[in-house]
């Protein structure tokens, strides 16, 4: 699974890169801290999934990613669960969401489940 991570927090980006580098079933193709850069990186790297922080204008970013890279699955990465912002991004084309507080092992399982379902 090729994964692009877009998160506004540099610590989260570094932590995810370290944790995911230990897994042989996930290849991190980029770490981005901005929604516009996430769209451009999708065009350049064509990942299978984008893990998108909801603080990066997730609805607009999801629309742009899906417009340019319709096969890429956008997975929202949220602090608060199913908020109105998450609902809007899901309606814009995001596939699902993962709650940050659920932890790394839960995130891996959720990513694997989403990959199998799609």
Q: Secondary-structure map with pairings?
A:
Elements: E1 2-6, H1 10-21, E2 27-32, H2 35-45, E3 49-53, H3 58-68, E4 73-78, H4 84-91, E5 96-99, H5 104-117
Parallel strand pairs: 1-2, 1-3, 3-4, 4-5
Helix pairs in contact: 2-3, 3-4
What report would you give on this structure?
The chain has a five-stranded parallel β-sheet, with helices on both faces. The protein has five helices and five strands, in the order E-H-E-H-E-H-E-H-E-H. It starts with a strand and ends with a helix. It has a domain at 33-81 and 92-105: Rossmann fold (3-Layer(aba) Sandwich). The model has no long low-confidence stretch (mean pLDDT 90). Helix 2 (35-45) packs parallel to helix 3 and helix 3 (58-68) packs parallel to helix 4. With 118 residues, it is of the alpha/beta class. 36% of the residues are buried. The protein has helices at 10-21, 35-45, 58-68, 84-91, 104-117; strands spanning 2-6, 27-32, 49-53, 73-78, 96-99.
